[in-house]
């Protein structure tokens, strides 16, 4: 496989992942971003732990969707993340979820231009 073929494949996978995200984002209440993954979920619990002066975060989610183009199944029943890095948790604003407006994408989801 040439470098060009690989780049084309990854671009197609990213577009497919974006389309799936666009289709499912309205089902969820929270966006959780860690240093390694991006999750959508309706239910989470976060605990802050301190061991020998080191602080780390434990985030547990139920019925989540994970942004990862290499996973064959992105819906997961239970997720537990342990990280020493920042965790960003945001509640989705329902009025901002219409990704077809002013997103740079046409109604077919194809990039414009």
From TrEMBL:
It comes from the Bacteria. It holds the Pfam family DUF2469. This is DUF2469 domain-containing protein. It comes from Streptomyces lonarensis.
């Amino acid at each position: 496989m040439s470098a060009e073929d690989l780049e084309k494949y990854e671009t197609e996978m990213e577009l497919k992942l974006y389309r799936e995200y666009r289709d499912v984002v309205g089902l969820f209440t929270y966006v959780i971003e860690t240093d390694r993954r991006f999750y959508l979920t309706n239910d989470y619990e976060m605990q802050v732990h301190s061991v020998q002066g080191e602080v780390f975060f434990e985030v547990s989610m139920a019925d989540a969707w994970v942004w990862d183009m290499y996973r064959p199944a992105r819906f997961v029943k239970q997720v537990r993340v342990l990280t020493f890095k920042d965790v960003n948790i945001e509640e989705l604003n329902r009025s901002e979820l219409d990704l077809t407006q002013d997103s740079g994408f046409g109604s077919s989801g194809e990039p414009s231009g």
